[in-house]
Design goal:
mainly alpha, elongated, 2 helices
């Protein structure tokens, strides 16, 4: 059984079964994604200011 497993592993690990690597092409960011990123950045800054005011009161 071990010989069968080793033989199958050797056959399936050979380069003939391997696919070539295609590098991913970066996509341009859409206007909608840029808008939501800006909203998230502004919200983060607003929450950080809120936390700072809460902490400074104590």
């Amino acid at each position: 059984m071990r010989r069968l497993i080793v033989a199958l592993a050797t056959v399936f690990a050979s380069p003939t079964f391997a696919d070539s690597f295609d590098r991913p092409i970066p996509q341009a960011q859409s206007a909608t994604a840029e808008f939501w990123y800006a909203v998230a950045c502004i919200a983060l800054i607003a929450f950080m200011i809120a936390v700072q005011t809460l902490v400074s009161r104590r």
